[in-house]
Amino acid sequence: MTTTIKLIKTEQEYELALERLESIFHAKMGTPEGDELEVLSLLIHEYEQKHHAIELLSPLDALKYEMEEQGISQTGLAKRLGIAKSTVSEIIHGKREMSLKFMRFIHKELGIPAAVLLT
Fold first, then answer.
1. Does the global pTM surpass 0.85?
2. DSSP code per residue over 39-92
3. Segment 74-116, tens digit of pLDDT
4. Rounded distance between C-alpha atoms, residue 71 and residue 61, angstroms
5. Distance between CA atoms of 98 and 104, rounded to whole angstroms?
6. SS3 for 11-23, per residue?
7. Model pLDDT, residue 87
8. Residue 2 clears pLDDT 70, i.e. is over it
9. What is d(CA 91, CA 81) in angstroms, rounded to the nearest whole number?
């Protein structure tokens, strides 16, 4: 059974669209339900972009998050980078900008996306 597809304008319509998406999630492409799945996915994405957008972390917040997640101390990060702990501390506390070398390291070693570091 297919449903009438329309723009999602309210949170209630959004919830109903998510339920319908879940019920037809494994539909085969090229079938009526597959087409409905594709269109519904686009409509849900559009609604989420307007009403549930997730903002990227700042480079500093991303660094703090990854350090916490990976259990890395300021001292440990300084040793891995080969720089003074005071330099890491200044960066963490927003008193010093991240150098390009520092950003490359945390991108490669901590897995912080370049897109986040370059914002």
1. no
2. HHHHHHHHHHHHHSPPPPPPHHHHHHHHHHHHT--HHHHHHHHTS-HHHHHHHH
3. 999 999 989 999 999 999 999 999 999 899 999 998 999 888 8
4. 15
5. 10
6. HHHHHHHHHHHHH
7. 95
8. no
9. 13
